[in-house]
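hiii, so i know i said id send this last week but things got crazy w the move. better late than never?? heres the sequnce for the chain we talked about at the cafe, plus the structure i predicted for it. fair warning i was half asleep when i ran it
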Amino acid sequence: MANAASGMAVSDECKLKFLELKAKRNYRFIVFRIENQEVVVDKVGNPEETYDDFTASLPADECRYAVFDFDFTTIENVQKSKIFFIAWSPDTSKVRHKMVYASSKDRFKRELDGIQVELQATDPSEMSIDIIKGRAI
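okay and structure toks below
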């Protein structure tokens, strides 16, 4: 299952948790990390958790991938939700980690069928709730 370009595998748990988020809405968010050449689940957020809970779960100095199920109301007053894929790559993380996460991102994202919006962030201001709202509509 490893990608020839990055040598990265994706654990089955990643795909299963994502399907549960997408289909059953069991989670508000999932944070993934790369460990021993494999993408694995780092944390999951319960449906009642908020966007602030999600951003607080991202380490300040380490890269992560994450998906967030964002609920919002349209101008027409219709309840909707969009699944965001966020590539978190803080400026303070190690260069090698940034390179590994960057080179593996597209391969990993392809494993998660149903991503609607992608966001790249190097600091919290690049993924503020206002930016999320703006990208969702």
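btw The CA atoms of residues 9 and 88 lie 19 Å apart. thought thatd interest u
miss u guys!!
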